[in-house]
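Obj.: predict assembly geometry.
Materials: sequence records (below).
Method: joint structure prediction, all chains together.
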Amino acid sequence: MSNLTKDDLIDFLYEEVRMLDESRFDEWLKLWCKDGIYWMPLDYRQEDPIHETSLMYEDQFMLRLRVDRLNGARTFSQKPKSRCHHVIQRPFVDEMDHEAGRYVTKTQMHYVETRMDEQFMLACTAQHHLVLEDGALRIERKRVDLLNCDAPFGNIQLLP
Amino acid sequence: MTRYTSRSAVEGLVTPYQVHRDVYIDPEVFRLEMDHLFANTWVWVGHDSQVPNKGDYYTTQIGDQPVIMVRHSDGEVKVLYNRCPHKGTKIAIDRQGNTGKFFRCPYHAWSFKTDGCLLAIPLKKGYNGTGLDQTESAKGMKAVGAVHTYRGFVFARLAEEGISFEEYFGDSLSSFDNMVDRSPAGRLKVAGQPLRYMHRCNWKMLVENQTDTCHPMVAHESSAGTAVQIWEEMDMPEGTPKPPAMQIIAPFMSPYEFFEEMGIRTWPNGHGHTGVHHSIHSDYSEIPGYFEQMTEAYGEERAKEILGENRHNTVYFPNIMIKGPIQQLRNFIPLGPDKTLVESWIFRLVDAPDELVARTAMYNRMINAPTSIVGHDDLEMYERAQEGLAADGLEWVNIQRLFEEGENFEEEAVENGTTERQMRNQFHAWVKFMTASMPEALEAAE
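Observations (raw structure tokens):
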């Protein structure tokens, strides 16, 4: 039985995007359950992440690969590096199951990414499934829907 | 300024082992490509599973020409220019839908059968005695020059006259055959929406890269090399199943010898493929039950033959690539000399286990998405090349690896897998179809 408050959940979500904006990616990886999945659908209201193409559907190996690659000596598309910036609205806490230690939130955000002379913005909705593991919140699943998911994009190199 | 005013000027852009930078950066060459190359060749339009029912349509483009692929009332797939013959309004603007028995222009309600024929014009008496019936407008929506559906894949030639489908593709269709034969029912079905990835580079850079086997271990070291490194550091016990990224991404780090030995085959008219003997797709894990289904459908010997063919990338000139072993098609759509939209489609093998389309979807997102750590480095290379070609010191791009004097592209050939022969083959075809409908001296632009 946990005594987490809404504020605890919201603080967690704010801290997560702060880590991304400050390039603290190794710390960010520690926020995840070991079988946590980051899903970014390709289609509006996509239901099936497995048998259709998604923009991302990544396990912890893929996310670690993504993060380690950012620091590689021969990561050409990150020379120079990208930077990102999240502006998030106060998250909705949609489910709080203290008994099971499971929580579902929804966060609207504007995500800005820049590299060299280029900058673009994405309007996103992030749904988090959070679980309590040894007293700490962990991300079991993060689904990020892009408002214009069906539009053609150039490189999106960091993480909304 | 009009520089390319004659057939010989266009021919002069390509030598046996070099191409002039203008083929990638010059707006006038791009215009000629749209008018000639994309009119004279057979260009992929879509898959017939996108329009299963009468009246179903899908909008796309051939070169820079907006077209509609539609299932007509007789069951045939038609390809029409997406333009009202009245004022030019696009008839359909959404990417797909069903129009019922006819198209109706939203501007003045002219209506057309799904083969394009004019059906009705409101207040038609206003045209009595005007001679409208003598005009192009009265014929309805214009159809493209020719359409051919091969095992579900719909191709069109814009030009009324020209090379036949069979002659144009010839034996290269064996890659489509292998992809479709991998379904126990001999049929594919589009799965989900395509990835759409914008590239600020010329479309030909992407097509060339499909058979460029000397870049993966260099450009993709940051993703494939890092994957291998992480897996080694994890130091898992022998026999631990590898994560999907190791199966899909790690083979990009294969050594030069692997790519040399895989072989490249070229066919006439600019088509060719890597992975004659093996490929990065050869060692995917088996899917339970699939081989049994294939054996039941084809017999064991034929099933083994189909599944033993693991071609890597097959380029169908001018602008698509397919991967038979994973049922993927990439469409390199030219939007400008320095702008290309890449759509990456995947297909389900009808009657095969779901795990196969799951692997295909995984490949698509891991390698070809705008969010892909592999795609990022490819795009970086193309865009750097597009910018670098502006440099005036050198005007030619080199495609000379394993070049031999007197190469004959009218014959099929199998060569060392690191040859750039397929790029030379593409440019040979480029000149052929660029100039096929050109007079000796083009009329000076007005």
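Conclusions so far: The longest strand of chain B covers residues 339-349.
To do: check interface contacts against the pulldown list.
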